[in-house]
Amino acid sequence: MANIERKANARWSGDLRTGKGTLSTGSGVLQEQAYSFKTRFEDAPGTNPEELLAAAHSGCFTMQLSAMLAQDGHPARLLATDATCVMEPAGAGFKITKMKLMVRGAVDGIDQAGFEAAVSKAAELCPLSQIMQGNVQIEHEAVLEN
Predict the structure, then answer these.
(1) Fewer Cβ neighbours under 10 Å: the N or C end of the chain?
(2) Please, which residues have CB within 8 angstroms of residue 39's CB and are 6 or more apart in sequence?
(3) pTM of the entire structure?
(4) Going by C-beta distance under 8 Å and a sequence separation of 6 or more, which residues neighbour residue 130?
(5) Strand pairing of 76-90 and 93-107?
């Protein structure tokens, strides 16, 4: 398989507090999606980098877990992962310190301990987890809902 490249871009005008920007993806899924200081540090409508990181991580992790479960003979009927990206003040700025993954699964032929082991392994092997390792604490919780 060839290398995979995905693209996105950001545009910004103005200073940090009053400026505004847009985020777009090469696929077109996001097209000039607004973001600003208020969408990032307050609760204004729009998106922000941390929300997008949480979405990307939950998607990547869930696909990794699905592949592992199927490879072990336990294809998932359903996997649902909620990701929470935690950003905290650090020095003169902010730092992403933690990613919390809460996964619920309906998987036949596996018990809670087996599911937890698979979740733990997927959290290590997922490509987005790998780029965070050593920089961000990754917490995970697994609930088997058979």
Answers:
(1) N
(2) 45, 46, 47, 48
(3) 0.93
(4) 124
(5) antiparallel
Place of tokens 């998932």: 76
**Cα 32–38–44 angle (5° rounding)?**
80
Give residue-wise pLDDT tens across range 12-63. Answer: 999 999 999 999 999 999 999 999 999 999 999 999 999 999 999 999 999 9
| Torsion angle defined by CA atoms of residues 35, 41, 45 and 50, in that order, rounded to the nearest 10 degrees | 60
As a whole number, the mean pLDDT across the chain is 96
* Strand boundaries in the chain, DSSP class E: 8-13, 20-25, 33-36, 76-90, 93-107, 137-144
pLDDT at 1 > cutoff 90? no
Percent of the chain past pLDDT 90, that is, above it, reads: 97
Q: State whether residue 10 is helix, strand or coil.
A: strand
Burial class (CB in 10 A: 0-12, 13-18, 19+), 46: middle
User: Residue 43: CB partners within 8 Å, gap ≥ 6?
Assistant: none
CB atoms within 10 A of CB 7: 8
**Residue 105 near residue 144 (C-beta atoms within 8 A):** yes
